[in-house]
């Protein structure tokens, strides 16, 4: 089963625009890091990955160490593959989104259904129940005075 991090947009009461970020290795982020980062609107990270991979390749060519340059570019690719989803979550947090929690599911559709069921259960549990019998503590104020003994019992003098 996969774990999805549920991110909710800022200042919205409806749960329509939530984003599910799958926690795990990003294979496309490993294979084509700048394109994957740009696809997820991580513009600065995409530019940095592109420049880093280009500089490492050029440095390998200039020093006649093509293998070393390719291996260093592979490190950039591995970093984006491993930390790409974390970069997406961090970018959403910078934009004001907040993390609702995590959902465990096989597919994205199942994660969406589980999230919808959890939010419905939370909204039903949070609605205050109507009071039929009033609370006695609300009926009269507690006397503030000296009490004998170890505890103060409201209403007894």
Description of the molecule:
The protein is α+β, with helices and mostly antiparallel strands. The chain has six helices and three strands. Strands 2-1-3 form a three-stranded antiparallel beta sheet, with helices on both faces. Helix 2 packs antiparallel against helix 3 (43-62) and helix 3 packs antiparallel against helix 4. The longest helix is centred in the middle third of the chain and has 29 residues, at 66-94. The protein is elongated.
Question: In a nutshell, what does this entry contain?
Answer:
54% of the residues lie in helices and 13% in strands. It has 157 residues and is of the alpha+beta class. It has a three-stranded antiparallel β-sheet, sandwiched between helices.
SSE order? EEHHHHEHH
Which structural category fits the helices and strands?
alpha+beta
β-strand percent reads: 5-15%
Mean pLDDT: 82
Global geometry: elongated
How large is the count of helical segments?
6
Span from first to last CA?
Answer: 62 Å
Sheet with most strands: strand arrangement:
2-1-3
Give the fraction of residues assigned to helices.
40-55%
Residue windows where pLDDT falls under 50 for at least 5 positions: none
Please give the radius of gyration in angstroms: 28 Å
Oligomeric composition of the shown chains? single chain
Q: What is the count of β-strands?
A: 3
What's the story with the biggest beta sheet?
3 strands, antiparallel
């Amino acid at each position: 089963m996969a774990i999805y991090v549920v991110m909710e947009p800022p200042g919205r009461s409806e749960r329509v625009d939530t984003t599910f970020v799958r926690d795990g290795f990003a294979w496309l982020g490993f294979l084509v890091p700048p394109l994957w980062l740009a696809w997820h609107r991580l513009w600065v990270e995409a530019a940095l990955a592109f420049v880093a991979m280009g500089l490492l390749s050029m440095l390998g060519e200039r020093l006649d160490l093509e293998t070393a340059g390719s291996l260093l570019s592979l490190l950039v690719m591995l970093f984006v593959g491993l930390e790409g989803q974390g970069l997406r979550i961090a970018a959403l947090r910078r934009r004001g989104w907040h993390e609702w929690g995590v959902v465990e599911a096989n597919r994205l559709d199942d994660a969406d259904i589980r999230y919808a069921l959890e939010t419905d259960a939370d909204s039903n549990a949070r609605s205050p129940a109507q009071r039929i019998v009033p609370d006695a503590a609300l009926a009269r104020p507690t006397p503030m005075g000296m009490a004998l003994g170890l505890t103060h019992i409201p209403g007894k003098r």
